[in-house]
Amino acid sequence: MIISDLSYLEVVEESNVVGGYGGVNVTKDVDIEVDVDLNFDANVDVDIDKDIDVNLDSTVDITGNFAQVIGDVTAIGNDSFAEIDFAVTVTDGLAEASVVATGAVG
Question: Which of 24, 34, 85, 105 has the fewest CB atoms found within 10 Å of its own CB?
């Protein structure tokens, strides 16, 4: 995706929980300031202040094997691209999750 209009700003947060540890508390504070001076005499100022609090209580009884992956992808700048693709397979003797994460700035 090519974003040529810099006055467009999108904030996305994704959180996946697989398994559990009894309790998870996630706090994220995001401050973003964007100042864009375009060539056709337009000045755009965007100030975003987000304070996100998430409380999650989870109890899981796991017998056998356990595997976990946690990650994110961030690309900042002109012509940015960030994507996460994943596949999950569950059968009688197999539980598998495959992840491909890509972040690029042109």
Answer: 85
**How far, in Å, CA of 18 to CA of 6, rounded?**
36
The answer as to whether 20 is a domain residue is no
Residue 98 belongs to a domain: yes
**pLDDT 10s digits, 61-86:** 877 777 777 888 888 888 888 888 88
The percent of the chain in helix, strand and coil, each rounded to the nearest 5, is: 0, 50, 50
Asked whether residue 58 is assigned to any structural domain, the reply reads no
Q: Is 100 exposed, middle or buried (0-12, 13-18, 19+ CB in 10 A)?
A: exposed
pTM over 0.70: no
**Segments forming the whole domain that contains residue 100:** 65-105
